Amino acid sequence: MARETPVVWMPGGVRTEIHLTSEDTSGAFCLLVDYPPVGWSLPAHRHLTEAETIHIVEGDFVMELDGERSRLSAGESIHVPRGVIHSGANVGEHPGRRVVLFSPAGMERFFQEAGVPAADSDIDLGAALASAVSHGWEFISDT
Question: What is the pTM of this model?
Fold first, then answer.
């Protein structure tokens, strides 16, 4: 049965659509579409229980996996195995659009918990970070 796709706004001004959840896929994966703005970046981190696959629909991104840097543009994909340190950034001149799949499912709960309903809503960054950590994100310090 079709349902309305929930949309949340994440830190950094990233519009995120939650297309498929644990309930939709019997826990196999969750599927998101996000729109990182120009200049957006996510620091080095790893997911302790999920693998992540990212497909670039629009824009230009740099991804770093385990110290290896790749530039990705429309039509290209990258897979991040569970536990692998990675980071990413929109390095293009325009907002991007990505399809993001986490497997197994469950990561959508972080986006539901940490996201806000409108672009102009205030995001509690401390609460978003705590939510990320509680959902298995481990941020990697530069020191």
Answer: 0.94
**What are the sequence ranges of the domains in the chain?**
7-139
What is the pLDDT confidence band of residue 21, given thresholds at 50, 70 and 90? very high
Assigned token pair, 27: 């826990």
The burial class, CB within 10 Å (0-12 / 13-18 / 19+), for 45 is middle
Q: How far apart are CA 89 and CA 97, in angstroms?
A: 12
pLDDT-derived band of residue 3, with 50, 70 and 90 as boundaries? confident
Position 140: which residue type? I
d(CA 134, CA 37): 26
pLDDT at residue 121 greater than cutoff 60: yes
Residue 130: CB partners within 8 Å, gap ≥ 6?
none
What fold characterizes domain 7-139? Answer: Jelly Rolls (2.60.120)
Q: Which residues contact 84 (CB under 8 A, 6 or more apart)?
A: 46, 65, 66
Closest CA relative to residue 8, chosen from 89, 79, 114, 140: 114
